[in-house]
């Protein structure tokens, strides 16, 4: 069954293994069931700009954001949430620089 | 458009870089918190720090709210002394629920604006009644959910679930909520909507969760500033058009 997704343009300084780190963060707060609800995947990473596009299921967006918020380390900063990948890419290419401590 | 406020960030943390980062996180204002301990030891230094932070805030385009936090256990008499001296000079005075006596005092004293809940603090029916009557805010913090090992964080989350169950139960809370970072280091800061998402996932409707970071905080700050400016001379009385017309309508 085809689901509805949200695409998050995020600033991050963890360009390597980002998907793994995000999956762990979601697992830590919501467990395996939560991970299934969120369905997190990293679509693309622009290491030079410190930006990435992350895809999550629409219903799982609050769970994802909550998991990132309570994680002890700041993994990423959500810059924009869009409904289409095309729009997310447009936003990503328009951002000059970003920062995460 | 919503204006987000993070009302509890340690004043020591608020360097120009942090203020700039907070703007990037989407905040319009920040509560610069100084502990009551510093006000007791060196009040001039505390007031000077507030002045500097206001100036920095203006430069960065961020509204800096001055906040005195009674965050150490103390006797009621000392807390009253602090309130008498600083109530008219600081925008927000808040009390951390460090022990039962301090919690009960904070709930019934009208000079206290916010009760900050620390994990494990008990709230009794009478406390809630006073808070509702005096329009006080209850504040939850994000930082305790990020600190310590998994078991400590889980017990904090469990406490928040219980408190929100008492205050809200999936509807608009009877007592207005605030949700702040409580950050003492930059890595504890998060964007406002992620914080609201967390509150939402533990039992508050999303709109009300957003209010806890925006409307409730902004209303409190506005009200407090009006009190300090004499626009609200006593509870329940507001002088309309005081600055412009200079008269009472």
Structure commentary:
The complex is a heterodimer of chains A (101) and B (249). Chain A has 101 residues and is an alpha+beta fold. Chain A has a single domain, classed as Alpha-Beta Plaits, CATH 3.30.70. Chain A is built from three helices and four strands. Chain A has helices at 18-38, 61-70, 85-94, and strands at 5-12, 41-46, 51-57, 76-82. In chain A, α1 (18-38) crosses α2. The longest helix of chain A has 21 residues, at 18-38. Chain A is globular, with a radius of gyration of 13 Å. The termini of chain A are far apart. With 249 residues, chain B is α/β, with parallel strands linked by helices. Chain B has one domain: Alpha-Beta Barrel (TIM Barrel), CATH 3.20.20.140. Chain B has eleven helices and seven strands. Chain B has helices spanning 16-24, 36-41, 43-60, 76-86, 100-108, 125-134, 143-146, 150-167, 192-201, 206-211, 215-229; strands at 4-10, 27-35, 63-70, 92-96, 114-116, 137-141, 177-180. In chain B, strands 1-2-3-4-5-6-7 form a seven-stranded parallel β-sheet, with helices on both faces. The radius of gyration of chain B is 17 Å and the shape is globular. The model of chain B is unreliable at 244-249 (pLDDT under 50). The chains are: A alpha+beta (101), B alpha/beta (249). The interface between A and B is medium-sized, with 19 and 24 residues.
């Amino acid at each position: 069954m085809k689901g509805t997704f949200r695409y998050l343009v995020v600033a991050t300084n963890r360009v390597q293994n980002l998907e793994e780190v995000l999956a762990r963060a979601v697992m830590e707060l919501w467990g395996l069931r939560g991970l299934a609800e969120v369905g997190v995947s990293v679509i693309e990473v622009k290491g030079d700009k410190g930006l990435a596009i992350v895809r999550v299921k629409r219903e799982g967006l609050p769970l994802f954001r909550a998991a990132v918020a309570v994680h002890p380390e700041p993994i990423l900063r959500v810059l924009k949430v869009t409904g289409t990948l095309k729009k997310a890419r447009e936003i990503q290419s328009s951002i000059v620089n970003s920062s995460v401590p | 458009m919503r204006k987000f406020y993070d009302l509890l960030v340690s004043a020591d943390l608020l360097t120009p870089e942090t203020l700039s980062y907070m703007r990037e996180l989407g905040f319009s204002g920040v509560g610069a918190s100084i502990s009551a301990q510093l006000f007791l030891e060196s009040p001039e230094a505390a007031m000077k720090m507030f002045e500097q932070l206001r100036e920095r805030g203006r430069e960065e385009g961020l509204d800096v709210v001055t906040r005195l936090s009674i965050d150490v256990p103390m006797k009621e008499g000392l807390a009253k002394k602090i309130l008498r001296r600083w109530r008219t000079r600081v925008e927000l005075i808040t009390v951390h629920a460090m022990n039962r006596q301090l919690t009960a005092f904070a709930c019934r004293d009208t000079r206290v604006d916010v009760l900050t809940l620390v994990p494990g603090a008990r709230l009794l029916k009478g406390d809630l009644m006073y808070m509702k009557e005096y329009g006080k805010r209850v504040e939850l913090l994000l930082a305790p959910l990020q600190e310590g090992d998994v078991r400590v964080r889980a017990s904090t989350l469990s406490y928040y679930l219980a408190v929100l169950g008492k205050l809200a139960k999936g509807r608009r809370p009877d007592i207005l909520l605030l949700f702040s970072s409580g950050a003492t280091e930059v890595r504890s800061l998060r964007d406002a909507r992620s914080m609201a998402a967390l509150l939402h996932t533990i039992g508050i409707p999303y709109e009300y969760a957003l209010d806890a970071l925006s409307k409730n905080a902004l209303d409190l700050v506005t009200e407090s500033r009006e009190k300090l400016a004499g626009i609200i001379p006593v509870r329940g009385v507001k002088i309309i058009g005081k600055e412009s017309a200079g008269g009472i309508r």
